[in-house]
């Protein structure tokens, strides 16, 4: 098990940027694939981006070209750089970790609000 703590959320105007961070406890961070999900009010949780143990990444079509996931194994941290934010990006953003094929370690979430 790994404990995840997100930070970096807040309120930003449309077109602005935020960088989310997720720091993991333990000494096996590099063994985990990491991902960001989000959940808007009244909607189901959706995938945003993921990064493998080796650093390969994938992004949802809705954020491709605007968001970038990265990781720093020395700091046990995964990041989500969010640029050109839109009101529809407003959601609670969750960090998740997977040792195998299932994301079964979750953070508490951080609120991102984009005003128009």
Tally the beta strands.
Answer: 11
Output the structural class.
mainly beta
Helix content: under 10%
Largest sheet: 7 strands, mixed
Rg, rounded, reads: 13 Å
Overall, the morphology is globular
Summarize model confidence as the mean pLDDT: 96
- End-to-end C-alpha gap: 39 Å
What is the percentage of strand-forming residues?
over 45%
Secondary-structure element pattern, one letter each: EEEEEEEEEEE
- What's the tally of helices? 0
Low-confidence spans:
none
In brief, what are we looking at here?
Strand 9 (91-98) and strand 10 form a beta hairpin.
What can you see in these coordinates?
- By secondary structure, the chain is mostly beta strands.
- It is 0% helix and 51% strand.
- The chain is built from no helices and eleven strands.
- The strands form two sheets. Strands 2, 4, 5, 6, 9, 10 and 11 form a seven-stranded mixed sheet that branches. Strands 1-3-8-7 form a four-stranded antiparallel sheet, with no helix packed on it.
- A hairpin with a 6-residue loop joins strand 9 and strand 10 (105-106).
Distinctive features:
single chain; 116 residues; mainly beta; seven-stranded mixed sheet; globular
């Amino acid at each position: 098990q790994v404990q995840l703590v997100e930070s970096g959320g807040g309120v930003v105007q449309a077109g602005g940027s935020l960088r989310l961070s997720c720091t993991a406890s333990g000494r096996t961070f590099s063994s985990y694939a990491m991902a960001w999900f989000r959940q808007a009010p009244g909607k189901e949780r959706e995938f945003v981006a993921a990064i493998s143990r080796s650093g390969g990444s994938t992004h949802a079509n809705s954020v491709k070209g605007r968001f970038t996931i990265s990781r720093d194994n020395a700091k046990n941290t995964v990041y989500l750089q969010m640029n050109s934010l839109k009101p529809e990006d407003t959601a609670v953003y969750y960090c998740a970790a997977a040792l195998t094929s299932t994301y079964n370690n979750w953070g508490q979430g951080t609120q991102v609000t984009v005003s128009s």
